[in-house]
Amino acid sequence: MVQIIFDTDLVIFEVLGADKVWAFKSRLEIPVYCIRGARADPDAARGWWKGWRLPGTQIPGVITAGTYYKKGKRTFWDIHDPTGAIVVDLSNHKYNQLVIEVEDPVGEAQKLQKVTEKGKERSH
C-alpha cells in the first residue's frame, strides 16, 4: 500500500511496510507538473502480465510491486488488492505511470486531480 503526501510543488508516494522490500523502493517524489491525471481503476490492476520486471516482485493474486516495462512504458506498481487501485499518469518523468493501492482510491484520485489542475494553472 502507498500513502500519498501532498507538498507545495511535490507529491510524495510513500511505500508502506514490507512493500518497500518487494517494490525495491521506499518512496517516489514527483513534481506536480509531471502529474497529468489520476483515476481510481481496479481493472488496471487485474490480469497477470504487467510487463518485464526491472526490478520487482510478482506473485499472481498476492502482490505486484516494483518497476515494470511494457509496450515502451515504464510503470511503478504496488498492488495487493485491485479494488484499492489508482492509476497516476505522468509525463516528463522516468515513469509513465503509477499503479498503486491506496486506502481511499476515489478520494486520493480526486485530490491528485485537483493538484494537477492547480499545477496547470500555475504553468500558464
Q: Considering DSSP H and I runs of 4 or more, what fraction of the residues is helical?
A: 10-25%
Structural class: alpha+beta
What proportion of the residues form beta strands (DSSP E)? Answer: over 45%
Which ranges are low-confidence, i.e. pLDDT below 50, for 5 or more consecutive residues?
none
- Mind describing the biggest β-sheet? 6 strands, mixed
**Total strand count, please?**
9
Q: Roughly what is the average pLDDT, rounded to an integer?
A: 91
Major sheet: order of its strands? 4-8-9-7-6-5
* Cα-atom radius of gyration: 14 Å
Helix count, per DSSP? 2
Instruction: Please trace the helix and strand order, writing H or E for each element.
Output: EEHEEEEEEEH
Q: What's the number of structural domains?
A: 1
Distance between the termini: 34 Å
